[in-house]
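Predict both folds.
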Amino acid sequence: MPTQREIDEAKIRQQVDKIVEGLRDKDLEGLKRLYATDVVSFDVEPPLQHVGIEAKLKNWANAFAFFQDLTYEVRDLTFTVGDDVAFGHCFGRLSGTLKNGTATSGMWVRATFCFRKIDGNWLIAHDQVSVPLDMASGKGVVDLEP
């Protein structure tokens, strides 16, 4: 019989699967159900932080505006789960076909998710997406693969 932690981790992994589905389907309403209303996101786009569900959804809407179709791939997803908070990390890659018809394989990023159990549902309270920094040039390194 699975422990409560195993059950919770399975539910959290399902939430990440729903992110992948929501991005593929360009489903802002579906994505909205995955985030806490007060989510704080440190995404790759400026500004330094995006606060609240509307700011997070605006980032996804911006991505949808660039892509005709898109996919999001997750690798090496790992979680640590507590009673009402959990955190995890993975590598993620957004790719697809741009509106102008150009296919792009995207770039691999590092992603961190922090979940809170709110009214029995695991919701993303914080996420962070980043790329490594080349110290000498001051530029992000976007050609690495996991």
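Second protein follows, with its predicted structure tokens after the sequence.
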Amino acid sequence: MMLRAAIIGYGKMGRIRHEAMDRHGGFEVVVACDTVVDPEAAIPMVTNPLAVYDYDPDVIVCSVPNMMIPDVVCTALARGKHVFSEKPPGRNSADVRLMMEAEAAAHKSDASLVLKFGFNHRVHDAIEEAKKLIDAGTMGDLYFMRGVYGKAGGPNYAQNWRNDPELSGGGILIDQGIHMLDLFQMFAGRFTDVQSFVQRKFWTDVPVEDNAFALMKNAEGIVASVHSSATQWQHTFRLELYLRNGFISVDGILSASGSYGTEVLTLALNRLDATGSPIPNPEQQELRFTEDKSWDKEIAEFHAAVVEGTPLKCGTSQQALDVMELVEAIYAADPEWSNPRQKTSQTATE
């Protein structure tokens, strides 16, 4: 079944989604909306988001800045359209709840409407393989996880809308670290205890964090630590999962920029000595991935959910709420960051 699609927000991500829909073959992109009309665009373009509905789309792809996401998503659902939205899912958990209310209201008239958020890291090949290995059970219980996800600011970093908390909701944690937090919750579920340090060290002319360190524990005692950084001068993605019978790590993540390197999944199974104790430095096996299929997998899942009614596994509104609440918990756990008076004092002394 061919679905008519409208893209609201035709920048980098909107075009990536357009390309993925074209590769899938089950979508006809009939219109795109952006603040400026691209004269070379191969499809009709408009500047008013409401004008896309004149083209009678079946689905809305939302690729706008964080502060605009709730309005675009809620409007689309109220008009009976399926929605695929980028992450982060707004600026805070209140934004997510607003969209969930619109989703629930829409379901009263059409229970088949689909709302999906684009957390594509869940469907990277290396991450999926790690999940399969853990779910198979042969590696035993998951004990703890470590994650580092960082980059080097970038050109015009201070002027980017992502560093205006009124527009974005936060800094590097909500922009990039949210992916690592989403993966943590995919592997371990919700975290109940959170400790953190949230800092602004290098980019002192912006009102958001450039580093966030957090330590989390869930009800089963699984611990996770994350470092989300805009001062990781060497672009880095590393996820480590330690289990009773060995460990799994993912180094590198394939991305549109290509700056995080090849995805390498490393697997090591413990060897035991005569007493049954693990021998240090077990033999490791590597599996390398060189093609990013995550965009295509997300679009395929969205199409199947709309056309066939297949339940979403990734990017549900509940998952979006869970991870946004974890982001907020990390901000709140550092009293020097979450207290506005202390936050202002910190800025003045830096």
